[in-house]
Specification:
With 371 residues, this protein is of the alpha/beta class. It contains nine helices and 20 strands. It has a single domain, classed as Leucine-rich repeat, LRR (right-handed beta-alpha superhelix) (Alpha-Beta Horseshoe), CATH 3.80.10.10. Helix 3 packs across helix 5. The chain is elongated and about 80 Å long. It starts with a helix and ends in a 17-residue tail after the last strand.
Length: 371
């Protein structure tokens, strides 16, 4: 009996050891197989995730690799139901590019407000069609009690391009649902900490920023974004399809917050009115898309938007323009736009939505002389 137990025990131990060894080997061999390396040591890693994938193991594999590693690119695409454990802000050895698509992200806040031993290296980051798994009570406690840390608050300051497209939040079931007062307290705490944070986020290289397809844009989103952050080179800012009802001051006064801005996309929102500064500074034109919003009338000074050294080109296509006498300034603007910027002449085809007598007519063809 004892011999039998010894044999069974030995077999079991061997099986466990073999299984563990195979797990480690298979895990690392998967990284080796999925990461294509060129002659410069750059690694292009692409994974199709059916179930679960762990960024920590990937980071450990990079760390333990003794050979030279150049730039690392990571592409994660999940099958339906696929989950990735991915702590913000995705730091790892020489990681330069990361794209995550169609995944449920777990562990997103697991390294939040913790100083990272890894430096900022990412230049191109994209989160597309992902859901971030969160514990609402944990987030409340974090906002109320944890100080802001530059490592997680700023994220990857080396970014050249940052895309957040159709990013949503999925909350784990909780027995204790927080009260409205508790939520408001946490919200106010975050706003206050953002205004008094003792550091500045320097996005010196950021040229393209996209935040689209969000149903939950906070009312302090632009305050936390700009209170202690600078974007000296940002040229393209896409903030379309976010149910935005009004234009925040940071965008109406774009030169102060985004001095190099050349394209601002606010299309497919719920904006009803607009006003933008048009400073007399020597820069290229600024293109602003307000297409497919709820704008019925335009500011009285709209024609002056094209007079300065930085012409402001406004796309108002797809808006329910009301063609009363106040629309005469829009007609004037569209005619001038067509003459001064013929490459954008399609923008001059804005149509009247009302009154019924003018519905469907191009605004610039309406006779406003009687006004």
């Amino acid at each position: 009996m004892l011999i039998r137990r010894f044999i069974l025990s030995s077999i079991a131990s061997f099986a466990l050891f073999h299984a563990y060894t195979c797990f480690v080997i298979d895990t690392y061999s998967e990284f080796d197989q999925k990461c294509q390396t060129n002659t410069f040591g750059d690694r292009n890693c692409s994974f199709l995730v059916p179930n679960n994938w762990n960024f920590l193991k990937f980071r450990e594999w990079l760390e333990k690799t003794n050979e030279h590693i150049g730039d690392v690119s990571l592409d994660l695409t999940c099958m339906d139901g696929g989950t990735v454990f991915l702590p913000w802000p995705f730091r790892a050895r020489t990681l330069r590019k990361i794209q995550v698509r169609n995944c449920l992200i777990d562990g997103y806040y697991s390294e939040f407000n913790v100083e990272s031993k890894y430096p900022n290296t990412v230049k191109d980051m994209a989160l597309i069609d992902v859901a971030i798994l969160s514990d609402i009570n944990q987030l409340i406690e974090m906002n109320l009690n944890d100080p802001l840390v530059k490592s997680s608050t700023c994220g990857q300051e080396t970014n050249f391009r940052f895309i957040q497209r159709n990013v949503t939040f999925s909350f784990v079931p909780s027995k204790e649902v927080p009260s409205f007062d508790r939520l408001s307290e946490a919200f106010d705490s975050l706003a206050e900490k953002s205004k008094t944070q003792p550091f500045t986020c320097h996005f010196e290289n950021l040229v393209y920023l996209e935040h689209t397809g969000s149903k939950s844009v906070s009312r302090i989103h632009f305050d936390t974004m700009t209170d202690h952050s600078v974007y000296p080179k940002l040229k393209v800012f896409n903030f379309s399809s976010n149910y935005l009802p009004t234009i925040p001051r940071q965008l109406t006064r774009w030169l102060k917050f985004f001095p190099s801005l050349r394209l601002l996309d606010l299309s497919n929102n719920e904006i009803r009115e607009f006003s933008f500064e048009h400073p007399d500074v020597s820069q290229n034109s600024l293109y602003i898309s307000l297409a497919n919003n709820n704008i019925t009338s335009v500011p009285a000074d709209l024609p002056t938007y094209l007079n300065g050294k930085t012409p402001v080109l406004i796309n108002l296509l797809g808006n329910p323009i009301h063609c009363d006498c106040r629309a005469s300034v829009l007609s004037q603007y569209l005619k001038t736009l067509r003459r001064k910027a013929p490459q954008f002449k399609a923008l001059s085809n804005v149509k009247c939505h009302s009154p019924r007598a003018f519905a469907g007519r191009k605004v610039r063809t309406v006779n406003f002389k009687l006004c």
